[in-house]
Amino acid sequence: MDEVKLVGVGEKLDYIDIARGIAILMVMLVHTSQAVNGVSQLVDEIDRYGQMGVQLFFVASAYTLCFSSIKRAEEKQPLISFLIRRFFRIAPLYYVAMIGYFLLESNMHILALIRMPYSLYNFETIAANILFIHGFVLSANNNIVPGGWSIGTEMAFYLIFPILFALFDRAYKQSGITALYSLVGLSILLNISVQLSVQQLFKVKIDDNSFIYYNLINQLPVFLMGMTIFFHHHYRIPLQLSLPIQTAIFIVVTIIGIIILPSKQYWLVATCLPVIAGISFVFLLSILKESKYSNIFLTEIGRVSYSMYIFHFMFAWYLVPGIGLTLKKGILPELLLVCSITLVIQLTFAVAKVSHKYIETPGIWIGKILISKPLLDVRQQ
Q1: Beta-carbon count within 10 A of 60 CB
Q2: Is residue 256 within 8 Å of 196, Cβ to Cβ?
Q3: 199-220 pLDDT, tens per residue?
Q4: pLDDT tens for residues 68-79?
Q5: How many CB atoms lie within 10 A of CB 57?
Q6: How many domains does the chain have?
Q7: Which of 43, 63, 192, 318 is deepest in the core (most CB within 10 A)?
Q8: Which pTM value belongs to this model?
Q9: Within a domain: residue 378?
Q10: Does residue 377 form part of some domain?
Q11: Is 360 domain-assigned?
Q12: 173: in domain
């Protein structure tokens, strides 16, 4: 193995945890704000942009998968090990969430209180979620576990990641980093072509809450951006931009995204906004790494961000509306939002710490046990 290929393999990825911490706070902000009425238009638009935290998760996920692939390059049967590792990282908590939200929904229905939007329980939707194919099933895509669409998209990406990584690695070695930019651009053009075709053939509206928006094809360019910035960092190819300039680009691109989000041009929001957000987050990741930024709060949140993503809906969608109804007009909407998001973060973090310890960690441990079994060993005859 070439010496250059080992660059970065032993480094700590605290900046990835910080990125995940930022991502989950963005997601929690948008879902909490949905239960608080009356905030100013500017605050509302900034809150809504929090939904792009999912794209930050996608960038960080693709980055860490590349890192893991390099680190485990000599592992026996790497493909099987990769799939087992990913399944047991995601599935145990997701299955617990399916049961938990069903019980919560049932009780809320009995009490005639607020219900989770778009909830739909039947054999098709439940089976699709159990098998993690709900990203390709219209009726099952986002209505069993809140926010479950991103999990389905992530799992679909896991299935094709080994092929994509091999493609990126070969393209880089043959043609350099420019080839990776070309692959990202090609994925964007492919996505635009697919969406235009779907709109013309089926006369459907594509917005940021539609099935096509959630689909892997639409989100794939974002994942590929995460892979591209990994190759930049791994092979120590500088962006040729100073940190202040990178920061300025991140801020400007983020502002553009916030401006675009309320647009009535749905194709712009659904097709272009994830790409715009992905570009901004590539610079954010680079800034966090190069500046060696440290933040214990964001790091700790980032480490349990999956559990926080799964459970924050219980507080943002079920608890906060009750608080708003209780206080009514006794508090400014912006202050209510600040108090609500603070409470949601605290409660979710407490639950996530328990979930991470007793659900996520055992699931990861089971995956490691299965990978280490002799059945998976490749023995030379």
Answers
A1: 25
A2: no
A3: 777 766 676 678 889 999 999 9
A4: 999 887 777 888
A5: 25
A6: 1
A7: 63
A8: 0.91
A9: no
A10: no
A11: yes
A12: yes
